[in-house]
Structure formats: structure tokens, C-alpha cells
């Protein structure tokens, strides 16, 4: 009986370590995907086609082509997934993570980029 208990304990530990590694790989993969899209997303922002809302998600501001819509949707999907991972690690809500990211983006955005303040009002960065 003791051998079975040790075996089960070892199996559970291996499973948890494997899950933690997958979690870390997912985070790294999401960050990599987001970084690979930065220049394309920046072009959309500078063209005033998308803006950064107050929860760290891109919002359409003008007509987008099918490819641009696909790009925006992929970015938002990855951001949401990354925010969920960070929220779980930090033991806070996904919304709080997104709001924090939105604040960072407001501070770093180029002139002319559409941004949404914490009250929901849209403005162009000066």
C-alpha cells in the first residue's frame, strides 16, 4: 500500500510539473506572437483604424480589410489569454490586468493613436 501511495504521489507531482511547464510555454508563446505583430498593429493604430481601449484590448475605429480584422482579432485573442495567465498568477481579475496594461499603453503611445481613458472617453494622443 505504501508503494502505491508513493507512486501516486510521484505521478501527481510529475503531472503538476508538466502542467506548470505548459503554462510557462503558453505564456512565452503568447508573448512571442504579440511581439511579432507589434509593427503591424502599430501601423493600424497610426492609421487610426484601431485604438487601445481602457481594458488593454484593441477596438476598431475605422473600416478594416479582412486581413486587418484577422490581425486585430488574433492580437486580442492572445492578449486576453495572456491577461488570464497573469491574472491567475497574480491572483487578481483579468479586468485589472487589462486595465494596468491599458495604462502602460496610454503612457507609451505615439502621437495620433486613439486611446480610451478610464472613464471610457476616446481621445487621440498628443
What does this structure look like?
The structure is a single chain. The chain is an alpha+beta fold and 126 residues long. It has one domain (26-124). The protein is built from four helices and four strands, in the order H-H-E-E-H-H-E-E. It has a four-stranded mixed sheet with strand order 2-1-3-4. Helix 1 (2-36) packs across helix 3 and helix 3 crosses helix 4. The radius of gyration is 19 Å and the shape is globular.
Task: List its traits.
126 residues, alpha+beta
Short description:
The chain contains four helices and four strands; from the N terminus they run H-H-E-E-H-H-E-E. With 126 residues, it is of the alpha+beta class. The protein has one domain.
Determine the strand fraction and express it as a percent band.
5-15%
Radius of gyration: 19 Å
| Elements, N to C (H/E) | HHEEHHEE
* Global morphology: globular
- Largest sheet, if any? 4 strands, mixed
Contiguous uncertain segments of 5+ residues: 1-23
Overall pLDDT metric: 87
Tally of discrete structural domains: 1
- What's the arrangement of strands in the largest beta sheet? 2-1-3-4
Distance between the terminal alpha carbons, to the nearest Å?
A: 70 Å
* Total E-strand runs: 4
**SSE-based structural type:** alpha+beta
The helicity comes to 55-70%
Helical stretch tally: 4
Amino acid at each position: 500500500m505504501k508503494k502505491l501511495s508513493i507512486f501516486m504521489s510521484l505521478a501527481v507531482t510529475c503531472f503538476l510539473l508538466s502542467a506548470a511547464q505548459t503554462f510557462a510555454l503558453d505564456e512565452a508563446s503568447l508573448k512571442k506572437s504579440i511581439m511579432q505583430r507589434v509593427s503591424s498593429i502599430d501601423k493600424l493604430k497610426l492609421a487610426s483604424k484601431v485604438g487601445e481601449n481602457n481594458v488593454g484590448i484593441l477596438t476598431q475605429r475605422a473600416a478594416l480589410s479582412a486581413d486587418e480584422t484577422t490581425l486585430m482579432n488574433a492580437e486580442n485573442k492572445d492578449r486576453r489569454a495572456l491577461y488570464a495567465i497573469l491574472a491567475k498568477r497574480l491572483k487578481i481579475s483579468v479586468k485589472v490586468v487589462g486595465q494596468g496594461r491599458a495604462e502602460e499603453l496610454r503612457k507609451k503611445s505615439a502621437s495620433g493613436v486613439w486611446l480610451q481613458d478610464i472613464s471610457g472617453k476616446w481621445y487621440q494622443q498628443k
